[in-house]
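Collaborator request, handled under Task 6.
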Amino acid sequence: MGKLKVKSGKGEIVLTKSKSLVGLKTNSSANINQKDFVEKELHKNLGGFNVVTLKGDDIDQDLDEVRQKEEVEVGTHIYFAEGSQKPLVATGEIFIQFEEGVSKDEQGIVLEEFSLLLEERRSEIRIIAKVTAQSPNPLKVAAALQEISMVKSAEPDLDTILDEYFNAPKDDLLDHQWHLKNSGQVPDTSYRLKKGADAKVVDAWKRLGAAGRADVTIAVIDNGFDLTHPDLKDKVFRPFDLWNQSNKLNQGDTRFTHGTPCASVALASSNGRGIVGAAPNARFMPISGTSFSLRATEQMFDYCIENGADIISCSWGTTDANFNLSPLKEEAISKAAKKGRKGKGCIILYAAGNENIDYLNFYASHPDVIAVGATTSQDKHANYSNRGHGLSVVAPSNGAWPITAARAWWDEGLSWETGNYKFWRDGRSRGSHYKHFGGTSSSTPLVAGICALILSANPDLTAKQVKSILEQTADKIGSASEYDQNGWSRKYGYGRVNADKAVAEALRRRDQSKAPVVEVSENVKAGQGLFEFNVKRQASQGWGVQIGAFAEYGNVLIQAEKLQRQFDEKIIVNINELNGKTVYKVVVGAFDNKTAAVNLFRRMEAAGVRGFPRNLADLG
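Structure tokens returned to the collaborator:
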């Protein structure tokens, strides 16, 4: 079969038509498997199509015949990208950007040539067009449009299957939630964990004096939500199903169970039985129907913005090079990260992925996303967890000992096991509503729950500030040599998340925001006024604690006076230029060795002053 080259994401992909799969849209609510022309359904919703195999030997002829049937609205071929085994379908929409200056009349001529309908106008030169019954194949249309001089880009909206980042447990299992607080013991087995290898969630609850606020909403975008589960049913808030475009979520399909355990790790209720999520008081916004489609991507994130989601947890994505994110998908994520929460931004988390490779799930690589990897109950990097640029933090999951999570009532368990082993690796049942779980699918909603605790402590934080707090307060695990000078590691990001430290920092910033503001008069800002100076040249050697960098000279004077009075140490100011502007870096203390600087750093931290030990040679 011939190959077709189309624009996708930041590049092009080469597509080959499937020899056996087609996509059908029907006008009947009946199970498509009951149609006499369908051999088997493989996927329920891919870009709005049911992916099926047909009865017959000639796929082109069989599809043409099926298209004539009264109950079939649309029939289309399914494609595969070169080097990929994931089915891909064109939704029928094409995102077109014309060159600057191309008029609407000229744009209309282009649409008319291919019998396209204008579906939506985004700007003077950006539109979404939709194929009609008279149009050629949308992939061929997009390829042809790309050759027209008036068209800058034409990207067909494609949908494919995204990976659910769940790892089947491979070790002995546990019924207690060691990821919240790890005592080093497993009550019903002889397995030993590493004490303290947890996310410090119980400590965070103690600091807050509660398990979080009830007005914080976590949206979980996934498939297979059991809304009757005892740990989820009483907290559902504004659910939505992308596949059927309603608030009635599809339940009972044994192919889709992933969303239930993911949601439970984040927010399972504290109801005196079963498990408890990291943020058990949070509201649960289930959004059912993962999709690679541009239109669906925009819709899922717009729904979160419009319906009050504070946090968005996504334990799915792709590392298939054919399906890197297009600028339009990146825009949809950025929009939620900036406009959600009435301008403070939705906090968006994505799983790093479970492929054991040196780059992340492409969704997780987005700069506005908190990318979450996985660690084990031994406080080590989980060997399946992807590594690389963009990784924010890691959080406890399986690898040495699994997580206990909620199970959908229709979950049939792992097909390669029998009996209780389908849900519990060691065969010891901990209740029919639960099972063992893991992968970055589990670590991601755990961090989402911790983000809900951070917002409970300080609701005024922006999405960027929450991400910064998670990264600044994470615990460094593994070898120190694995971290660069900025404290970042390809395996661990900024470290294993610490909910207690993160909540403490959120509270500190809340209290600091309530403190009286020190006004700097105009003459001080200009460096005018009367001040006592004792200026000496400082050698570029030794160690101190840098507290920040300032653009206004008046702030330097205020900070220097306050810090010297508070800690009785030498104040050093490094004057430099950054992007053509003068910048003042303020350092407290000048010591011969790093140990003395670290001791001062701890004194300052205890007093609520943030900083970091600094080698003065780096400033010289």
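The cover message to the collaborator said: "The longest strand covers residues 11-26. Residues 515-521 have pLDDT under 50 and may be disordered. Please let us know whether this matches your experimental observations."
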